[in-house]
Amino acid sequence: MTNSAIKKAAAKAAAKYLDGGKADAKLAPAKVSRALAAKVGRAVEGLVYPVYWREEGARDPIPGKTPKARANALVRRAKLGVRFEILAASYGAALGRAVGVAEVKRVLREAGYDPDTRYAGRGTRSSALGEGTRVSQSA
């Protein structure tokens, strides 16, 4: 199974998973990843999860009629702990064009919110904020 086929399978599952706001547990990202990985014999999370994030964000655009209103709504959603990838898809859906994580972070900074204080999608809170103990791999 090629990367393209894996992405298509993930998109089909994501569309069904997110259909009408009723999540189907058997089509959750982790279960789809495990099923596809078993089928192809390798890890596929890096192909599957971004599809779900993009779909989830596109289905929930950032509200607001003005750039300032959209920026404020983006800050509110960021404070909820939503992943940057989902925020980018939501912001892009509002603007009608593709938006990357870097642009979302720039808009957040311009709106007075420091995206580097967040830890959503960066592992545990303590390690994301540099509070955790690092163990040397050579020890």
Count of alpha/pi helices: 7
Question: What is the end-to-end distance?
Answer: 39 Å
How large is the share of residues in beta strands?
A: under 5%
Structural class: mainly alpha
Shape: elongated
Number of domains: 2
Helical content band: 55-70%
> How many DSSP-defined strands?
0
Major β-sheet, in short? none
As a whole number of angstroms, the C-alpha radius of gyration is 17 Å
Low-confidence stretches: 132-139
Q: What is the ordering of alpha helices and beta strands?
A: HHHHHHH
Average pLDDT figure: 82
Description:
The structure is a single chain. The protein has 139 residues and is mostly helical. It has two domains: 3-58, no CATH class; 67-117. It contains seven helices and no strands. The longest helix is centred in the N-terminal third of the chain and has 15 residues, at 3-17. The chain is elongated and about 45 Å long. It starts with a helix and ends in an 11-residue tail after the last helix. Mean pLDDT is 82; it is low at 132-139.
Keywords:
58% helix; elongated; 0% strand; mainly alpha; 139 residues; disordered C terminus; 7 helices
Tell me the layout of helices and strands:
Elements: H1 3-17, H2 29-40, H3 45-58, H4 67-79, H5 84-95, H6 101-110, H7 125-128
